[in-house]
Amino acid sequence: MSSVHDHNRRAWDERARKQQVFTRPASNDEIDHAEGLLAANEWIEGSVRGKRLLCLAAGGGRQAIRYAAAGAIVTVVDISPEMLALDRQVAAEKGLAITTVAASMDDLSMLDANAFDVVMQPVSTCYVPDVQPVFDQVARVTCPGGVYISQHKQPGSLQADVKPSARGYELIEPYYRTRPLPEVVGSRHREAGTVEFLHRWEQLIGGMCRSGFVIEDLMEPRHYQRDAPTGSFADRSGYLPPYVLIKARRTSQNMDADMSKRVVFVG
Ligand SMILES: C[S@@+](CC[C@H](N)C(=O)[O-])C[C@H]1O[C@@H](n2cnc3c(N)ncnc32)[C@H](O)[C@@H]1O
Fold first, then answer.
1. What is the atom index within ligand 1 of the atom nearest the CA of 104?
2. Are 257 and 231 in contact (CB under 8 A)?
3. Are 24 and 60 in contact (CB under 8 A)?
4. What is the CATH number of domain 3-152+203-252?
5. Which residues 6+ apart lie within 8 Å of 219 measured at CB?
6. N or C: which end of the chain has fewer CB within 10 A?
7. Residue 121 in contact with ligand 1 by CB distance below 6 A
């Protein structure tokens, strides 16, 4: 495991211990009404009942639990043992069966090929330096025709200052950066203590396509609120949507994962 992975594992363990943002389990009400809530998600056709579902980088007692409560056969993968402990704790309290796996999203070699009908991934690809291995791994474990629903931080949002100057939210980071982003404390757009990376559109959308997915839909979840105080999360989200939600489907062909054989356009 690289030093980045190790750092983020410790950072998320710490965030879970301190009960920070994204580490709070689902409420009783959310768990009890999970089937109805998830049925509203038209991207998962029909019910999740009986579907083999992978919650990727989704520990914390929130995601996997609700899918299990709705009848899915759930595996949750996360790099943080503390986040996975929350899933096991809530599952035990609710009498739900889930499988937890401590692993990094870019190495799912412990999971069988074609093992899942649906893969759900909340915002998390920002924690790995290279997103292509994640998509290659997800493609391998998703069955042909299976659905991959993932949310990512938008590159433009990661380029811009979290606080406005007199001229607005200025672009302060280059688009073509490969090194980690500078740490930001006190912003809902970033998770303090973690190491985060910007992934370009060609890496997100193009990367999924090169791994053997076709993109079926794309949404920008709306966090903007009219009349939000200047500098707040809701105000900034009106200029720079923070996230993108992508629905991709695994094609039936086996794509060639060898990067050297992928077509590169120059010019
Ligand atoms: C924003 S949280 C998403 C889960 C959150 N509990 C939720 O309700 O949506 C990001 C998750 O990614 C996990 N994570 C960070 N780096 C990872 C990696 N390389 N592989 C797998 N999981 C990772 C963290 O431990 C954390 O649980």
1. 20
2. no
3. yes
4. 3.40.50.150
5. 244, 245
6. C
7. no
